Amino acid sequence: MLGMKEVRPSPGPDAARAYRLGMIAGGIVGLVIVGALYLAGFLTPLSLGYVVVALFPIYLIVVAVVLSVWLGYDKDVTSLRPVYRTKQ
User: Fold this and answer.
1) Per residue, what are the HEC states of the chain?
2) Using an 8 Å Cβ cutoff, are 67 and 23 in contact?
3) What are the two backbone dihedrals, phi and then psi, of residue 42, each rounded to the nearest 5 degrees?
4) What is the pLDDT of residues 29-63, one digit of tens each?
5) Deepest in the core among 32, 38, 47, 58, taking most CB within 10 A?
6) Alpha-carbon distance 31 to 29, whole Å?
7) How far apart are CA 7 and CA 15, in angstroms?
8) Mean pLDDT, the chain, integer
9) CB atoms within 10 A of CB 67
């Protein structure tokens, strides 16, 4: 259907709560997995520090991106509006 604009409602308060819960659950799951790998002997203390400081924040960004797309927070080119500044 060419020329028809897709109408997408903006996410509501339920999506905001789901996003928050998903981020908390994703963080807990990630920390549990890192802790289990350390306790199982797959991570040394040095590698544990590297995972927590360098890789865990990247994991949280990936979780945030997946949740935002899934819950409808993603925007595309059709969401952009020109910005004008008034001259004084």
Assistant:
1) CCCCCCCCCCCCHHHHHHHHHHHHHHHHHHHHHHHHHHHCCCCCHHHHHHHHHHHHHHHHHHHHHHHHHHHCCCCCHHHCCCCCCCCC
2) yes
3) -80, -20
4) 999 999 999 999 999 999 999 999 999 999 999 99
5) 38
6) 6
7) 18
8) 87
9) 19
